[in-house]
Amino acid sequence: MNFNRFREFLPSGGVLLSEESKRVYECDALSAHRVMPGCVLLPDSVEQIQKILSYSYLNNIPVVARGAGTGLSGGAMPHAEGVLLSLAKFNKILEIDSVQKTARVQPGVRNLAITEAVKSFGLYYAPDPSSQIACTIGGNVAENSGGVHCLKYGLTIHNIMQLKIVTIEGELITIGSHAYDSAGYDLLALLTGSEGMLGVIVEVTVKLISKAPHSRVLLASFDDIEKAGNAVAGVIANGITPAGFEMMDKAGVRAVEDFVHAGYPIDAEAILLCELDGSEEEVEIGLKKIKILLKQYGAIEVRVACDEAESELFWAGRKAAFPAAGRVAPDYYCMDGTIPRKHIAKVLAGIQILSEKYKLDVINVFHAGDGNLHPLILYDVAIPGELKRTEDFGSEILQLCIAMGGTITGEHGVGIEKINEMCIQFRDDELEQFHAVKAVFDSKNLLNPGKAVPTLNRCAEFGAMHVHRGEEKFSELERY
Amino acid sequence: MKEKVELIKEHVFDAIEQKKPLKIVGGNSKAFLGRATKGSLLDVSDYSGIISYEPTELFITARAGTLLSDINNTLFKYGQMLGFDPPNYNTRTTIGGVVATGLSGSRRPYSGSVRDSILGIRCINGLGKDMSFGGQVIKNVAGYDLSRLMTGAFGTLGIILEVSIKVVPIPEAEMTCSRSMTKGNAIVKMLELSGQAISLSGSCYYGGVLYVRLSGNENSIMATKKKIGFDTDEQGVNFWDQLRDFKAPIFNSEKNIWRISVPITTVPKIGDSQFVLDWGGGLYWLNSDRAPKEIFDMAEEVGGSAMLFRGYDQKQEVFQPLTNGLLSLHQGLKKAFDPHRILNPGKIYASL
Predict the structure, then answer these.
(1) Do the domain assignments include residue B306?
(2) Which of residues 255-314 of B touch A (CB under 8 A)?
(3) What secondary structure does DSSP assign to B170-219, as a single string?
């Protein structure tokens, strides 16, 4: 493929062809999967993106869009014969409307940069994936990213109003509007979380939220993980919607406490972090109510942060969970399933059994409020066979999530990582419907090919592989 | 219930074979919406019943024919509700119709729209395939979000069989306050209120009065009321209910009723038409006999979209025209779900 043709309409330095310059793009944060892209393009205008895409369309060149490359499912893993389209230069905030409470931004703007830019108006952008310091809004839309405050403030889809996309044929289309409702089908929802399969996002209008005047975090410890799980369900059933509601198991607490000294009780089997926000009075009343509830559900200790600083310290521990895992093992593999809250304890027990089966330790942290699990499997890539064992372990965790009525991905996306598990979550007819939708936008299958939705052939092979194993899944677990 | 699904599938197969479209109907309480369509009636109202509801999980799954009133009553028993405040035009309104039309009430800017609350859908497409998308959990990004795509599609992409919807707690207390003022002042006030961190759940200007609904606990509501300087409105509950259920006096008119969604910071040129301004300035209800094209142009001028909500000519286009790029994507999607064009063809746009 002659990628040099792109030099005709891209700025100098906008076409990377040498191996050294392409190296940093060969994977996203799912670093176990690497492919050297055919070329890397760095356009700096929407017109250039249109030209890149229409040229690629005419010449049948695959295109993979990439933001900051912080994705955890290999969604931005390049194509060996294709274009890796970096949106890094689209990093400007185009317009802030503090009255309408919206911001129009380019896709390469970092998530946290939006909040920083609107802070002085008492506003912020709510979805806060843990990578928010680095991840970009374009990637957030492509993955429908969440964060710790989703329970109350929603995912990316609930916090955007309008997108501009360029189709594979090079057409610029505006989807949604700055009004609450728009005419026609909800293409905004269809595009959000579509993992770069339907179009390239070139502009995003996000909703902004007024910052609550007051917020406070409490920390509850439990001597039994099941009690902690039930307490989460209990608080929610009582009509309280915390701004954040997180859970961590003993292994997580210990790893974190060694690392950041957040004051977590290291003897607890599980801890809950619960944040309330609102007026000072609402928060006070809510905290009282939750304290009583948590005690009723068996909390051995409930500590309310005495001030903002302690609130931040409590959160610092949770936010340090992933790096803390990195300190106790050479590598960790972060999973992302969602289950109905009521099954938290059962799924944790299941993960424990799998941990013994695969002889790999696991740390459990999760967004308990919305049932989104992030088991961190600890392994060492240097030990032959351990990565494979880790991936098999992860796959079984995802299948367990499906069996419990949940899903294989809550917020990280399918990408290349969970493509096989899609065959378990969806039936052939449903996968065919996904392919039919894809074909509407991308009839030649050039945008991020091979990701997000498996071909039926792949599923047939994956199914066959499972039969070969000759074992029933989770035979060790009680089924209901 | 299994047999009922099979029966619906057979209707689809027959329709394909006979090349005769289907007109999908639930409670038929919103028959006046959308464009007029022809076809054999497919009544899904007897595919009904709540399948799963657990208050701790904050969702409810119900068959399409389940009455909205049954769902509301069930949720109410556990202190929960649908956050998007769906209209209940008569006692036959079904949850399938609520999702298919995607209409949200006055709470929409504050607790989200129908599609914001949709977690999953089971449907039959135009090929008779029985499919499920999404699920029952809040966070779910596996596959394209086809359940939200179907919300508000008026049955043109699939026959909705079952829906899973997020529910929210009923606020501990609510109060409606009001104050008389001019339209200009009301718009300024609405924007000012939306910029404050207060627990609003309604903000609507009607008949020279700005109505504001506050939600939360008793004390914080009182404090907010004091802060904004409004008077308690004893008729408040009725006001919102009537507006939502299309019973407010403005709707009792011989003229066309338009529903126009606009950016809150814009002021469309509505002339001297009688109007209600809801959603904190984001939704106009208009009583007007102006030509549809004029209204569509007026909405487009401010970046909004209009819908002829109740008109006397359902043969014309009733929804804001789409740009060419969008229309061709819509046509492609229609084909991807319903290649034989048998599901409510022409309901939202003539060519879909």
Answers:
(1) no
(2) 261-265, 279, 282-283, 303-305, 307
(3) PPSEEEEEEEE--HHHHHHHHHHHHTS---EEEEEEETTEEEEEEEE-HH
Residues of chain B contacting A172 with CB distance shorter than 8 Å: 325
Q: Are A464 and A458 in contact (CB under 8 A)?
A: no
- The radius of gyration computed from the CA coordinates of chain A, to the nearest angstrom, equals 23
Asked if A449 has any chain B CB less than 8 Å from its own CB, the reply is no
Residue A480 pLDDT more than 80? no
Nearest CA in chain B to A212: B197
Torsion of CA B132, B138, B144, B148, to 10 degrees: 80
Q: How many domains does chain B have?
A: 2
Summary mean pLDDT of chain B? 95
Are B75 and B224 members of one domain? no
Domain encompassing residue B228: 173-244
| pLDDT of A357 | 96
Pairwise CB contact (< 8 Å): A237 & B56: yes
- Contact in structure between A39 and A6 (CB atoms under 8 Å): yes
ipTM above 0.90, yes or no: yes
Establish, for the pair of chains A and B, how many residue pairs have beta carbons separated by less than 8 Å. Answer: 245
What the block records as the tokens of A262 is 């957040």
Last residue of a domain, one of B194, B218, B244: B244
The tens digit of pLDDT for each residue in B79-105 reads: 999 999 999 999 999 999 999 999 999
Contact (CB, 8 A) for A40 and A86: yes
Q: What are A112-121's pLDDT values in tens digits?
A: 999 999 999 9
Return the structure tokens found at B308: 């002829």
Q: In this predicted structure, what is the pLDDT of residue B109?
A: 95
Angle of helix A386-403 relative to helix A344-358, nearest 10 degrees, comes to 160
Q: Where are the alpha helices (DSSP H) in B216-263?
A: 218-228, 236-244
